[in-house]
Hints:
The chain has about 230 residues and is an alpha+beta fold. The protein is about 15% helix and about 45% strand. It contains two helices and 16 strands. The chain has helices spanning about 5-15, 20-45, and strands at about 45-50, 55-60, 70-75, 80-85, 90-95, 100, 105-110, 120-130, 135-145, 155-165, 175-180, 185-190, 195-205, 205-215, 220, 225-230. A hairpin with a 6-residue loop joins β11 (about 175-180) and β12 (about 185-190). It is elongated and about 65 Å long. The chain starts with a helix and ends with a strand.
Amino acid sequence: MRHFLPTHITQTARSHRTPTSTPxxxxxxxxxxxxxxxxAPEGLxxxxxxxTSLTYxxxxxxxxxxxxxxxxxxxxxxxxxxxxxxxxxWLTVLNAPTSMTTKATLTVGVNTxxxxxxxxxxxxxxxxxxxxxxxxxxxxxxxxxxxTSTTPPPSTTSSATLTWNAVTSxxxxxxxxxxxxxxxxxxxxNVGAVTSYTVNSLTVGRMYYFAVSAYNSAxxxxxxxxxxxxxx
Length: 232
């Protein structure tokens, strides 16, 4: 008696083959590789922003400080979008371009007319180049009190002159004079690289507290020991 079982097994195995599964896998792999390569050039472009921070000095009721510029450059020559924004009413990026290729220049202006108090103001400018690159540039404004009294009569205001020893142990960019009528609650004036400064428009008959700090690119020193004076 003959048996045909081996022939039946061979036919059944052939009926379950899926020859199209391998080509589909390579087709998907090819599409994935194409998409990755199409996104790579912009991401690999080197972008630099200079300078990395801005500092302005101004006096209350005086003229606005001069505009400053930020340079944006990149290594690729393709055209990309360029967007800028800031987070302060006194800070503006003037006539900013909306696209660039290898280089763009941003002009940054400060308007102090709406600032009622002297002191230190901080803000940031955010620069976005294309899809991949975002840079935040810190901006500091030192607004000093008016050096001349305008409304109070001379008989009710006076001044105090401070002098201090220069810091010699480390390079110093400048100094700040701190003053106020409450100890340890003082406002500052950036006076630059000097060792003497006169604070004007102080109320006669009131006691004021004074201190000095030094600063450079690495930061700011602690305040000096406070001095006090009753304005005569």
